[in-house]
Structure formats: C-alpha cells, structure tokens
Amino acid sequence: MAIPALHDTLGAAYVGNIVAACLYGLTTLQTYTYYNRSPKDPVVLKTLVAILWVLDTLHLAFVSHTVYEYCVADFGNLIALLEPTWSVLAQVIVTGVSDGIVRGIFCHRIWILSEQHVPTLMVLAGSSLLAFGCSLAFPIVGFRYTTFVGLQQISWILYLGLSTVVLSDVLISAALCVLLAKRRGNFRRANSIVRNLIMYSINTCLLTTLCSLAALVAYAASPHTFIYISFYFLLPKLFLNSLLATLNARKSLRDQLSKDSVQIPLSSGTMSGESRTARGFDTDRLMHFPAYPRNASDFKGIAVAQAF
Fold it and tell me: If you average pLDDT over residues 41-49, what whole number do you get?
C-alpha cells in the first residue's frame, strides 16, 4: 500500500509552525525594545501592546498544539488529518482579536491625521469590524463540524473574511499614505519624515495583504490540504510586527528631525494660540504620545511623527 504524500498537509503545518515561531521571537524582541524606548507612553497604549504580546504567545501555543496533535499524538493515524483539532479553530479566534486590536490602533491614527473625518473612519471601521466578525463567526460555527470536509460548508465565511482582511489592510495603508502626503510642507526635514512614514505605512499592510491573498488562493486551489492554514498561522504575527516596527521607529524619526537643528522646547501650556494654529492640531494629544523637543520650523513634521 502506497503511503500518501504528507508534504502539503503535515509538511505545510510544520513549516508554518517554524516560521510562526521565528516571527514570535521577533515580536518578543520588538516588544522588549518598545518598553525600553517608550517609557513615557500612555498606560493605554502600553497595556494594548502587552495584551497583543500575550495573544501572540497564546496563538503560537495553539499552533504548536495543532502540529503536536497531528505529528505526535496521532502519529501514523492518517484519518486524524481529516478532523480539525480544537486548537485550529481557537487560533482563528485569537488571530481575529489580535488583528482587530491592531487595526483599531491604525484607525485611531487615521482618525487623528484626518482631523476626525467621520466618513473615512466609518469606511475603515466598517471593513475592520466585518473582518473581525468573520474571524469569530468561522470558528464558532466551525465547532459544530468534526471534519475539514464539513467546514467546507461554511467556506463562504472564510472567503468573505480573507477578502475583507485584504480590503481592510489596503484601505488602511491607502488612507495613511494619502493623509501623510497631505502633510508635506516646505521644510526638508519634515518632508523626509513624511516620506519615511509613507514607506512604513505601505510596508505595514504589504506583507499581511500578500499573506492573506496567499491563504485565500491556497484555500480556493487546494482546500483539502493545510497549505492555506500555514499562511494563516503567520497573519497575526506579521501584522503585530508591523505595528511594533512603527512604534519603535518613532525615536529614530524624531532624532532625524532634530539632528543639526536648534531645539526650542515648548509645552502645551506655554505654546501660543498662533503656534497651535500653525501646526493645525495639538500634537501633545496625538495618540497621547509624550512631548519632546521641537524645532520651531518643523511643527507639521512633528505632528505627523507624533501620530505614529
């Protein structure tokens, strides 16, 4: 009797677990860096980062449990590959919650940069909530089925969820790029900051969008394998790493802005009304990030950097 090929089932899950573990190590490093670099960040933001790291840890535990069940506990039992473990569906829930929090942070940035433009926020929030809802609906309904074949009956939820994830990420990236481009001024340092942040915004959603598309295509092309699951293992870690990268980049961006320039420390209490009008909005309140020395000619660039 010929032994069936396992490279697109156990092999795909195994590779996905290894890459997810590597990304988790990067997440842990970036989280440690964040708390070292941003001791004055608000408690709310610090708490959200801690929650995201805990969710990421839980996600890796579920992924590892899935691979352990198939490769060790059910070793040699090929029938077990037809049955989804509880941890497969549980990690989908964790992914939805984690990605929902990250998208909420990005939407808050856009809310600030757009100067509280309600229609923009409604579009982004609507797509993000739909993606979040699908990520919860699929596993909750999926617990009723005992085989992957049975899960195909609700495949429309998975298709809708992954498509909405792609749409939401593209919209968030596009909105950030457009709003940042509008913040360009007449000062070279400020414009340099804006260009860097635009690149960060593009990279933020590029990897997650490609990964979501890969999962969507893999499921459509080969729903009976675990290839799409291996891509899904990586989604929350890519998204969280993108967020942490932008948070950790703030210090270098601020240093770049203040390099070789005369610093004029100003506080929100001493800044004149005229200065507040010039910069367009209160930078001390953007994302509740701490104030730092400002160059009088770069209010616009600082306001943008503060929002990140």
Answer: 92
